[in-house]
Protein 1
Amino acid sequence: MTVDDTRVTRPTLARCTRDTPVAEMYEHYRRDGGVIVEGILSPEDLAAINAEIDPHMALRAPGPRRSADASVEFHGAQTRRLRDLFNLSPTFRDRLIADPVLLDLVDAIMLPWAGSYWLTSTDLIQIGPGNKAQVLHRDQEAWEYFSDAGADQLEVVCNAFYALTDFTDANGATRVIPGSHRWEDYSETGTPEMTIPAEMPAGSMLMFSGKIVHGGGANRTADEERRGLAIPFNLGWLMPMDAHPFMIDRALAKTLHPRVQRLVGFRSHPVGLYGTNMWHVDYQELGEYLGMDGEAVGGTRGAPGFAE
Ligand SMILES: O=C(O)CCC(=O)C(=O)O
Ligand SMILES: [Fe+2]
């Protein structure tokens, strides 16, 4: 398969299913800056996650809560957000985040650039009726330097955005500008007219690049809540947002899949410097030091088949 390297904006995003080969998903992602994977969650897992989240969401007021929260334009005045999914949802921590289809796709995106990657955060974003469209942005702006560096540099962050309810144009489906990862000038974030809604049925996932312009859509319905789950991943040598090693109890971490343990800081990160680990204890692999069962897995720079 060859990569279409034109700078022409495509008016749409490709749709795959969880049976589509990951290499093909990745090709779509590279060309358009994002790809939709329909039905990545089973109906059972979707229902279980929603049921686990419901009681916590019911207690959460809309709008920013703390001084450290983003501005109201970014957070959303009628938007409820919940972080800390590892403690709130067993189905999230044991199934959604440990899904090899998800992690193989993130490997394809991130490993050409670093030996490992972190889970940046878990962000449940429930957009309520009347919420205005979110300000258009690129997620990599969180690591300021990269936006000045422009398009021709590495992938800093990719965002796996799960629809936990149906995403429609009317209820606030994420808006994206396909192809905006290839723009010359990253100070440009386009206009709302250039965006398309990532409409998708509940249980689907939109994987999009930190370089693509996007934002939550306006919820123009009278009574529909749009529930999404953002789980971004950033390169191993950049700082993540959520302080997971301080949020997840060590006993709980022991129950996680080894691939997931590393995402949240309970395993070392292999790097290219003569086989050295980063995030270790006196040269000992962190998982070993902490008594995590099983082998540290994955994390080879330039996963086979996905080299540039
Ligand atoms: O809620 C959405 O659809 C997008 C949210 C988003 O892009 C963000 O908060 O960074
Ligand atoms: Fe975003």
Protein 2
Amino acid sequence: MRNQQLKERLQASEAQIVAAGKSYVTAAQATTLHNLEPEDFEVDQVTGSEMVAIYTGRMAKKGAAGRVIYDDLILAAKDGRCPLCGQRPVSTLDHHLPKSLYPALAVDPLNLIPACADCNKLKLDVAPVSPEDETLHPYFDNIEQRSWLHAEVVEVAPAALRFFVRAPSEWDETLAQRARAHFKKFGLAKLYASQAAQEMSNIQYRLAQLYSVNAEGGAQRVQEYLEEEAESRRRAYLNSWQTATYAALANSAWFCSGGFQLQY
Ligand SMILES: [Zn+2]
């Protein structure tokens, strides 16, 4: 910090900022973030706009002293993909609880989630008002052990996919509602349907080859191929649009027996 007076006020606020971070973590783990009062996340000796400026100027800015932490958080995303949509590349950090409303969490690494620009924009600077309103938190919601992202084939020409959340039986109703709300907020059905449409175009020639090798058994060869591709993707990412796509295509007798060939 170049501003000595601000530096001293910030140092004097250390205990308050650490305590705010602890209550945030406790609430995130218990899905009670909506109960946190923004006024409890003000810092007595540093204004909200100063805290935001510290994040922007001393952490997010290239070359700033805190940028090393920013870069580490960006690099933490698996394969450089945004954990909110699972599709687009990470390009920024998203404040899970907005820095404008919870200034004490402006530079808290556990409140900073790697995200793509689109998800960051869609999230908006709003406080959650109910448990269902809390978007999924990549650090605290361990939801990748079970399959929850699914798709079904829409039998039209050309074939399309409809994506949806189907909560595993061990999830409680709140988590199921949060997953569905997350899915809706980030427009994932539309994003994944468009990706899947392109994927279906890309594999159409391959499927046609399998289908027409011999007159008999073409649909079965297509189905086996799709199931194998689904398994390969399932082992990499249980809940990716790719896994859901191949599983849905393999499950559709209509698609395997020629639906894949239908054009506009
Ligand atoms: Zn994203």
